[in-house]
Write a structure and sequence with these properties.
By secondary structure, this protein is of the alpha+beta class. Helices cover 45% and strands 16% of the residues.
């Protein structure tokens, strides 16, 4: 997947999910963020960057950094909670 395709994927995925978490399965802070969201009862989606074949600090994480000005995960996007 090209960088541009990854950008489109990130933007479209954020728009398509009321609550979305970009995470890494092994990262303790990401685990804490996922637990907090789960406790709210909001329907949410999780994308584990390491399980998607993304390299450490790979393209998706760089794209997220351009959107949020934050370089680390978890990155949690909340549009609405239902």
């Amino acid at each position: 997947m090209s960088y541009e395709e990854k950008e489109q994927f990130v933007v479209q995925t954020i728009k398509a999910n009321p609550v979305l978490i970009f995470s890494k399965s092994y990262w303790p802070y990401a685990t804490k963020g996922k637990k907090v969201v789960a406790k709210t009862g909001c329907k949410h989606a999780i994308i584990e960057l390491d399980e998607c074949g993304e390299q450490r600090n790979g393209d998706v994480q760089q794209i997220l950094s351009k959107i949020t000005n934050i370089r680390t995960v978890p990155q949690i996007f909340i549009v609405s909670c239902s």
